[in-house]
Design a protein that fits this description.
It is a single chain. The chain is of the alpha/beta class and 240 residues long. It has one domain: Vaccinia Virus protein VP39 (Rossmann fold, 3-Layer(aba) Sandwich), CATH 3.40.50.150. Helix content is 42%, strand content 21%. It has nine helices and seven strands, in the order H-H-H-E-H-E-H-E-E-H-E-H-H-H-E-E. Helix 7 runs antiparallel to helix 8. The protein starts with 12 loop residues before the first helix and ends with a strand. 42% of the residues are buried.
């Protein structure tokens, strides 16, 4: 069964995810850093380092949200970073942030469907996505379109939540993730569903070897998975 934020609504996952992120966009950056104790910043840095050897000049950031991963990608000194997202609320926050940081000449944010990218084949040296593939309505379709727009020899980097397997950390983490985080998220964001959807979607996501198998099935080469913070999140990479 497809995991959606608002179970009582008949709209599809894509529409519900866009609505959810529109709702929480004003508090999204704060909640990201607060609920993860700032470790999400470290994860993004480590994920971007996976592209250091490639030195990509044109990077696409899928499900860019407010642009944090796109901003981190500037560590690689690319010529251009383009971010796409289906939530206008998140993009609005992101554009204001880029303007304030004087980075709007290096990063452009566009409204777009991550599963039907409005770019030509082989357009980018690298495609990146942080905590976004979980929200795809059709995971394989979205990953296949990422493969389409990256050039031969180019690389994709996916940063995503995963499920710790080490006892007793696994039990402590599950308690926080399922019981504490949703209450804090609801209190601060004022959205009743967003931070219940988060742990639900992580539980249903095919992480680890399952995700690598999907990448390989779609045609990605040299796939790898690196777990972070005892398995709370993982970095997946693949080459076209």
């Amino acid at each position: 069964m497809t995991v959606v934020p608002y179970k009582e609504k008949s709209s599809g996952k894509k529409q519900q995810v866009a609505e959810m992120f529109d709702n929480i966009s004003p508090k999204y950056d704060f909640l990201n850093h607060f609920l993860s104790l700032g470790i999400d910043i470290v994860w993004r840095k480590k994920a971007i380092k996976k592209l250091k050897e490639l030195q990509p000049k044109k990077i696409l950031d899928i499900a860019t949200g407010t642009g944090d991963f796109a901003i981190q990608a500037l560590d690689l000194n690319p010529d251009k970073v383009i971010g796409v997202d289906i939530s206008e609320g998140m993009l609005s926050v992101g554009r204001k942030k880029l303007k304030k940081m004087k980075l709007d000449d290096r990063i452009e944010l566009f409204s777009g469907d991550s599963e039907k990218l409005n770019f030509e084949d082989n357009s980018f040296d690298a495609v990146i996505v942080a905590f976004g593939v979980r929200n795809f309505e059709n995971l394989e379709k979205g990953l296949a379109d990422m493969l389409r727009v990256v050039r031969p020899g180019g690389k994709i980097v996916v940063l995503e939540f995963s499920r710790p397997g080490w006892t007793p950390f696994k039990q402590l983490y599950n308690f926080y993730f399922s019981s504490i985080l949703p209450k804090l998220g609801r209190l601060i964001s004022k959205d009743r569903a967003a931070y219940t959807y988060l742990p639900d979607s992580v539980r249903k996501f095919p992480d680890g070897d399952q995700f690598l198998a999907i990448l390989e099935k779609l045609g990605y080469k040299d796939t790898e998975c690196k777990t972070l913070s005892l398995g709370i999140s993982s970095i997946y990479t693949g080459i076209k």
